[in-house]
Design goal:
Structural class: alpha+beta
CATH class: Alpha Beta
CATH topology: TATA-Binding Protein
Radius of gyration: 13 Å
Distance between the termini: 39 Å
Length: 79
Amino acid sequence: MPSAVLTIAESGAANTVSSLSPEARRDLMRTHAEIRMEGDEAVMTIEASDTSAMRAALNSFLECVMITEDIDKITKGTL
C-alpha cells in the first residue's frame, strides 16, 4: 500500500491544517488521509490502495495547499 508524508513548514501551517482537515477526514474508497500539527509544522499522511489513487490524492492535496498558501499571502498583503 503506497503511503506519503507531507510536511509543511511555514508560518501558515496552522491555517493549512484547519483548511484541509475537512478534506482529509473524507475517506474515499481508495485513500485515507490525516493532517495534524506537530510543533510549528503541518504534517499530512496519505495512504492509498494503489499508485493511481496516490497520484490523484497527492495532486488534489498539493493543489489545496497551494491555494491555502496563496490566500494566506493575499490576506497578509504579501502576494
